[in-house]
Structure to design on (105 residues):
């Protein structure tokens, strides 16, 4: 369970539970993710595509980062299911109207 919010506006608690499926008969380059997705765009003006962790991954998922200071996303190959805590977000730059991706694992 992960409380989200602040003392002034209050907190929400989100919960996710996964049943790990069997491996596919063939791992053919497709990446599988099983995760709980939350979109905060209405309450966080510059946040998009926020994923709630943990998540279950197989194939060649985005599953890590370069760490500080840039947190550039990294991908690694997995032939069995892996379970990891990972945070991925895009930050919107209002001046350029562009986005920058960041990841932490």
């Amino acid at each position: 369970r992960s409380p989200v919010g602040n003392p002034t506006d209050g907190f929400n608690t989100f919960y996710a539970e996964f049943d790990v499926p069997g491996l596919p008969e063939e791992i053919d380059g497709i990446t599988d993710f099983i995760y709980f997705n939350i979109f905060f765009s209405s309450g966080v003006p510059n946040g998009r595509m926020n994923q709630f962790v943990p998540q279950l991954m197989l194939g060649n998922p985005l599953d890590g980062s370069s760490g500080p200071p840039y947190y550039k996303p990294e991908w690694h190959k997995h032939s069995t299911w892996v379970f990891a805590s990972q945070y991925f977000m895009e930050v919107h730059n209002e001046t350029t109207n562009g986005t920058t991706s960041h990841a932490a694992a």
